[in-house]
Amino acid sequence: MPDDPFLQKLERAGKLSDEERVELQVLIKGRRTVLARDDIAISGSSDRVYLVTGGFACRYKTLQNGNRRIVSFVLPGDLCFMHDTGAFGRDLRVGALTPCTVADLARSRLIELIARYPGISRAIWWVTLRELSRAREWIVNDARPANQRLAHTLCELFVCLQVIGLADEHSFGLPISQTDLGDALGVSAVHVNRVLQALRAEGLITWTNHRVTIPDVESLKELAEFEPSYLCFDGYGP
Which Pfam family would be a valid example here (predicted)? Predict the structure, then answer.
């Protein structure tokens, strides 16, 4: 499996041919750096699709009262605004939570590759279905108590980072703030801190020096009611 996180994820939908890999590598060749707290993109730039190749980002919306609500995290290998070509879906922004590297893809060229190569077409469909599935799970997660909600979010990050080789058997780097987590969970940073302390007291997690350690992964998943099939990393199945 290729080392590039984007190709690693796409091949979860099925093996790409050598020609398909080369075409995608050419497409994502350029990179730019986005500073932490800056926007990667404002929805509505319909001629571009954005690929995060390094760092942690998020999709978010700013409410009228100034509060930010994060609706999903964006990790290396994730596409943004793949389907933002119409009047719908233009209320979200993508912001860098840490310094990020980003490839700006020409939408027209990506569409050409989808039309020409069945493996790329299959993979982009998988990206679409996966994001819809993950969005549904985030809605469900909002109904859980704060401790389960936080545990579920950490489990999701853990599994997603494992897939691209950025998490080991029990830990992963998490260089974001408690405020960022609070904006994803819909609670204050103070509440996040209380919940983190409770999970730490139960021996379920530690979070020091921007690294989360999960001593007993299965116990945390059980608390979170976390079942990873919604992330679709097993592809389409038979």
Answer: HTH_Crp_2
